Amino acid sequence: MISIVIPTYNEEARLAVSLEKLAAFLKKRKETFEVVVVDDASTDDTSKVAQGFKEKIDNLKVIRLEKSPFAGKGLAVNKGMLAAKGEIALFTDADFSTPIEEIDKLLEKLNSGFDIAIGSRALDRSLVKQHQNPLRELMGRTFNILVQIFTVRGIVDTQCGFKAFRMPQTRPLFEGQRIFDFGFDVELLFEAQKKGLKIVEVPVLWFNDARSTVNPIIDSTKMFLDLIKIRMYHGSLEGSLADKIYYLLYHYRTFWRFAIVGVSNTIVDYGLFYLLTRSELDPLVANPISVETAIIWSFTWNSLWTFSERKNTQPLLARAATFQFVQLGGLALSQISLVLLHVYAQIPDLISKAATIPVVLVFNYLLNSRWTFSERAKSSSSWIAYGSLVLVLFLIYFLLQGFS
């Protein structure tokens, strides 16, 4: 059986035309076909239009997806390909920019031993019968250059929406898929190359549909970020140096995010400390004010970004109070370091302040990642243990202050 997967979103106006063409095409074929139309949470009657062709197209299946954060063509393709029962499955754009008759070019390649056959608009540009506007073509070529640099090499056109797969060999690609918007094709091909699957590009006819829209700035940014995500998601300590770097960046992403927030936090802390001390406020008085301001800043961004993937059921205010409590230990360490460096060692205040930052950053990350933003509830013994640590640190600070 051969499965044809058609991802759709608000295609009420043109889906009927495509399915009429498909019905006529399938009647001429001897092979057994299955058609899977995936409606990606359309707000129009796309599903209803597709359902209306069940009498004209044998083995027609319509899948309706609910609205989700992962909504996009990549998700619709993923659900359709995993639902496909054919040994060969092809996905194609709902507008049939590449005529369905071109499927034979891909089937020939799969039958000759390739695992994946992908339509290409770049191998023979004479087959592009209706071009995109110049800006979109420039975006496509620029994106392909970035694809070659960061991910998939040797493939001229990764984005043509006409691709066929031998499912026994390639189903794991879809099962492991993590990119569901613009870069989903690239992720599939990147993983396929890593697994040593045989991929071939095939020049196909292509007619651009002017109704397709892309935002040059927003969508270009998303495309580029997808390439970075692909490398991070599929990085490995067993691979190249680049693979190792991407692996470390992704698997220790909470620390790197915490560090980035820490840099901005430092700017707030250090900047306010500078302003206050240059306004004749004593450094040991200015320091708690600047630190507390930075704490509020840090909690906000760590909640929204650094630890956003964690499922923390603690109410926001309770989590903020916990974060504040943890930061007391960081404040105590900061004060101790400042006394030792500025008061005892007579190092200038701004340099002393800078030297406290790495110590406090590591302390705060360890405590917040394992406590404030932990998915597990805090026990009473952990509160007592940490409270005792904070008291000891402040006691040390006050003793040092008393001897100065």
Outline the structure in words.
This protein is an alpha/beta fold. It has 2 domains: 2-236, Spore Coat Polysaccharide Biosynthesis Protein SpsA, Chain A, CATH 3.90.550; 252-403, no CATH class. The protein is 57% helix and 11% strand. It contains 14 helices and 9 strands. It has a 7-stranded mixed β-sheet, sandwiched between helices. It has a two-stranded parallel ribbon with strand order 6-9. Strand 1 (2-8), helix 1 and strand 2 form a beta-alpha-beta unit. The termini are far apart. The model has no long low-confidence stretch (mean pLDDT 88).
Task: For this entry, give a set of tags.
Spore Coat Polysaccharide Biosynthesis Protein SpsA, Chain A; 404 residues; 57% helix; 7-stranded mixed β-sheet
Mean pLDDT: 88
CATH fold group of the largest domain: Spore Coat Polysaccharide Biosynthesis Protein SpsA, Chain A
Helix fraction by DSSP (H/I, runs of at least 4): 55-70%
Broad structural category: alpha/beta
Silhouette: elongated
Summarize the structure.
With 404 residues, the chain is an alpha/beta fold.
Topology:
Layout: E1 2-8, H1 12-27, E2 33-40, H2 46-51, E3 60-65, H3 73-83, E4 88-92, H4 103-111, E5 116-120, E6 128-130, H5 134-150, E7 162-166, H6 167-175, H7 184-194, E8 199-203, E9 206-207, H8 218-233, H9 241-251, H10 253-277, H11 283-306, H12 316-344, H13 349-372, H14 380-403
Parallel strand pairs: 1-2, 1-4, 2-3, 5-8, 6-9
Antiparallel strand pairs: 4-7, 5-7
Helix pairs in contact: 5-8, 10-11, 10-13, 11-12, 12-13, 12-14
